[in-house]
Q: What sequence folds into this?
């Protein structure tokens, strides 16, 4: 029946008022908002990158890098364990994605196996019996022991590498001084970086494009890189190429570094006081300072090498022991490069290389144009809809339009509340939502007309119109909702933005186009009754 | 409320109109089958003009600093960069140019290098408005997701219709929806319009709109099945379509009015998206009337929920040749 209890009326009106309150901040300037009392809602609808301009980068981690790194650690651990257990081996190396050890005496195999199995780590839940081992240690022929990482172990390592990389990327992006960057994991080995307002992505790409792994190495005292290449590279040493390949010859360096970049506590761009060329000054933590101090004390007048991402950037000679824990790197940097490297060193190394697999950048001028176009199209579309509705349904058409406005207001309010950004396809979804809301009213009014033609009294016709049409409205909205939810679940990029507004639009349209319109008609009937008018349905 | 003008709406629709839709169902179904076959053929021959989302490669929208942009000069300049096929076209305003660089052989890094070459070549003369670079890994994923999204959307809808109605309605809906999606996709292939992620969103919306229409008609059919227990099925279907016709036309007109406004004023970026939606609304409305409902006539509907099952007998008698198609 067309009846509304008082509390129901209050609830409906209150919902509309709250909706309006939530939408109003979108029309106020920042200053006005700040001057308002604290209880006033201030959330504005956030705009997607395609409307406000900005950069969107999808980075993918090289799992091969993670594997290589892990194998190197494994090899070093295996060497340490075997030495500690005094088991002699004649070969230790990485081949076929595994670490292989050749024992001097094959009869040591069982002891070595037991020792090396200590490297296996378990992850997962012991109680549920879902543990996985990250490593398989097997015995081969002739005293060879093979350590092979499992797929599950690799996945675990990639996952934690991604978490670490997100932190590093965040520190690097923050150092650019941009506002509200979004940096989140996507899938198993990807990171999504969104920086609103950023137009030129070159600097951002440079900053996150490098792993920036810094290390300090001992240079082989007697053998040069050329000699080693012709004869044989001594165990534990490796040939490193130089950053500027023309000027500097490659060097033969001890593979295990003296100090690593993760023991830096600070790195700042600076200028050399004598030559005035850009340098980076850095400071070690206590442990790093001690290691570096000991090394420089023992190696005065010998060169050491500073290596960045497997390339030598400089190889100065140690003049005197460096005991204070601070130093500087020079390497014919430009000011910009020094600045960038300092940021990268401060924020720490990335655990593996990140490649850009997708980039979408929208300039602010295009974003503004799109907003303008969307607004114009929206206004014209709304006027057309309102004109058509009022033309077709008269006074009841006006009620339908009020319902439409409530629909629009609530949709925007819910989007502000949910914090979901409005995108260009989102505007299209909003407009489609309005068309669907109109459809609900058309269904109801056409039904009322039909009931009137069938000879029902006005009130009975209105009542039947709402009740009967509601089944159809619910069916049609729910099917569209099913479709929108699938879009949201599967969708990427534009599809998702569209699905969000469509879903919210469907949810609000039942309230706005059915409940609110029904309440308005109820008031209209009451006022007609009070005025003792003959009720004639103006549809 | 007292100050509100009390006026009647303009009821434009002749409600006692009974258009013999079902009489044309043979023609309509034939036309649609031919249309779908043609669409498949065109897609098979011409394929889609995939955008960077699905094909990989890069797309740059740039604006000339000195109006208007000299496209011929730009084409010559960028042709020399050795990046393979570079498409250059004017985009909306005469100052705006859209540049498409095909996917570079190699991996992800090569795509970035190609964009850098283009932006370096344009530096000073043009301002970047938009850059989209999609690497080989992501584009193949997006192609897969797009396809799955449409298929899953279709299934979700059919599952709902099946749950709410008889299976015949669900079958009618799935045929009508596949028809709509296929025709719009066929038109995009025929005109070689760019097919990207936003077109997938449009196809999904078309599914939503078209099923909305189908459900409204189906709802009325179900209601009439209860009301007129002895009415011959084809007549009943025709009555149902006619009764909902005023709503179909009014809602369709509003949707078209809004979409035309979006198409004209909504900007260049979502133009294709809006075109797809416009086509979809028109085709979707057609398919609800001429495909989904007539299919019920062929399939027959068990009227078990009203007790006695009534078979579509008059139809079978008048068109004996089709009797074997009546589903019992």
A:
């Amino acid at each position: 029946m067309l009846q509304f209890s008082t509390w129901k009326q209050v609830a409906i009106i209150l919902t509309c008022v709250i909706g309006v309150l939530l939408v109003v901040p979108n029309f106020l300037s920042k200053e006005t908002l700040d001057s308002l009392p604290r209880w006033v809602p201030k959330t504005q609808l956030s705009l997607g990158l395609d409307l406000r301009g900005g950069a969107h980068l999808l980075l993918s981690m090289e799992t091969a890098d993670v594997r290589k790194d892990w194998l190197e650690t494994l090899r070093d651990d295996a060497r340490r364990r075997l030495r500690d257990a005094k088991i002699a081996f004649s070969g230790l190396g990485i081949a076929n994605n595994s670490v292989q050890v050749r024992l001097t005496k094959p009869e040591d195999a069982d002891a070595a196996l037991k020792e090396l199995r200590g490297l296996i780590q378990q992850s997962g839940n012991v109680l549920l019996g879902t543990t996985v081992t990250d490593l398989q240690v097997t015995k081969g022929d002739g005293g060879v022991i093979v350590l092979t990482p499992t797929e599950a172990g690799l996945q675990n390592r990639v996952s934690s590498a991604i978490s670490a990389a997100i932190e590093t990327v965040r520190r690097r992006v923050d150092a650019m001084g941009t506002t509200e960057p979004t940096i989140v994991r996507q899938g198993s080995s990807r990171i999504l970086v969104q920086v609103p307002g950023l137009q030129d992505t070159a600097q951002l790409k440079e900053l996150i494009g490098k792993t920036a792994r810094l290390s300090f190495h001992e240079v082989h005292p007697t053998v040069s890189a050329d000699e080693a290449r012709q004869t044989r590279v001594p165990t534990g040493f490796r040939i490193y190429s130089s950053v500027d390949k023309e000027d500097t010859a490659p060097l033969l360096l001890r593979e295990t570094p003296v100090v690593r970049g993760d023991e830096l506590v600070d790195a700042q761009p600076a200028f050399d006081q004598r030559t005035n060329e850009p340098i980076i000054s850095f400071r070690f933590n206590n442990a790093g300072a001690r290691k570096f101090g000991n090394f420089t004390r023992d190696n005065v007048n010998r060169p050491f090498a500073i290596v960045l991402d497997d390339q030598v950037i400089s190889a100065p000679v140690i003049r005197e022991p460096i005991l204070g824990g601070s130093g500087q790197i020079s390497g014919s940097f430009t000011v910009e490069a020094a600045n960038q490297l300092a940021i990268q060193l401060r924020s720490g190394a990335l655990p593996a290389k990140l490649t850009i697999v997708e980039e979408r950048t929208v300039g602010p001028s295009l974003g503004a144009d799109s907003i303008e176009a969307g607004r114009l199209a929206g206004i014209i579309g709304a006027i057309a809809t309102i004109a058509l509705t009022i033309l077709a349904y008269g006074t009841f058409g006006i009620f339908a339009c009020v319902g439409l406005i409530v629909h629009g207001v609530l949709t925007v309010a819910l989007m502000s509340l949910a914090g979901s950004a409005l995108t260009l396809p989102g505007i299209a979804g909003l407009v489609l939502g309005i068309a669907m809301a109109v459809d609900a009213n058309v269904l109801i009014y056409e039904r009322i007309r039909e009931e009137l033609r069938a000879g029902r009294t006005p009130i009975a016709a209105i009542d039947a119109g709402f009740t009967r049409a509601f089944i159809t409205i619910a069916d049609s909205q729910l099917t569209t909702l099913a479709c929108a939810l699938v879009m949201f679940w599967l969708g990427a990029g534009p599809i998702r933005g569209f699905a969000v507004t469509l879903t919210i639009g469907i949810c609000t349209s039942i309230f706005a186009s059915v409940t609110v319109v029904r309440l308005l008609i109820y008031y209209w009937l009451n006022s007609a009754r009070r005025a003792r008018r003959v009720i004639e349905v103006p549809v | 409320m007292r100050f509100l003008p009390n006026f009647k709406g303009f009821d434009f629709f002749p409600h006692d109109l009974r258009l013999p839709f079902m009489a044309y169902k043979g023609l309509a179904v034939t036309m649609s089958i031919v249309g779908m076959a043609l669409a498949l053929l065109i897609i098979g021959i011409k394929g889609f003009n995939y955008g960077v989302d699905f094909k990989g490669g890069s797309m740059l929208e740039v604006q000339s600093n000195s109006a208007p942009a000299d496209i011929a000069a730009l084409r010559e300049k960028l042709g020399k960069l050795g990046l393979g096929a570079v498409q250059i076209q004017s985009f909306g305003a005469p100052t705006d140019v859209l540049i498409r660089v095909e996917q570079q052989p190699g991996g992800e890094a090569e795509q970035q290098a190609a964009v850098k070459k283009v932006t370096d070549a344009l530096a000073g003369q043009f301002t970047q408005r938009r850059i989209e670079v999609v690497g080989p890994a992501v584009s193949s994923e997006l192609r897969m997701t797009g396809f799955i999204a449409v298929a899953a959307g279709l299934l979700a809808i059919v599952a709902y219709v099946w749950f709410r109605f008889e299976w015949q309605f669900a079958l009618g809906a799935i045929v009508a929806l596949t028809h709509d999606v296929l025709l719009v996709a066929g038109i995009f292939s025929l005109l070689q319009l760019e097919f990207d992620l936003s077109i997938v969103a449009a196809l999904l919306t078309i599914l939503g709109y078209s099923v909305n229409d189908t459900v409204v008609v189906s709802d009325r059919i179900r209601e009439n099945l209860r009301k007129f227990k002895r009415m011959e099925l084809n007549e009943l279907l025709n009555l149902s379509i006619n009764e909902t016709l005023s709503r179909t036309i009014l809602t369709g007109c509003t949707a078209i009015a809004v979409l035309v406004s979006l198409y004209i004023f909504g900007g260049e970026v979502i133009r294709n998206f809006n075109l797809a939606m416009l086509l979809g609304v028109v085709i979707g409305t057609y398919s609800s009337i001429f495909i989904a409902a007539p299919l019920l006539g062929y399939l027959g509907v068990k009227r078990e929920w009203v007790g006695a099952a009534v078979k579509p007998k008059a139809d079978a008698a008048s068109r004996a040749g089709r009797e074997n198609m009546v589903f019992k």
User: Anything to note?
Assistant: Residues 306-328 of chain B have pLDDT under 50 and may be disordered. Chain B has two domains: 57-134, 139-325. Residues 233-265 of chain B form the longest helix (33 residues). The radius of gyration of chain B is 25 Å.
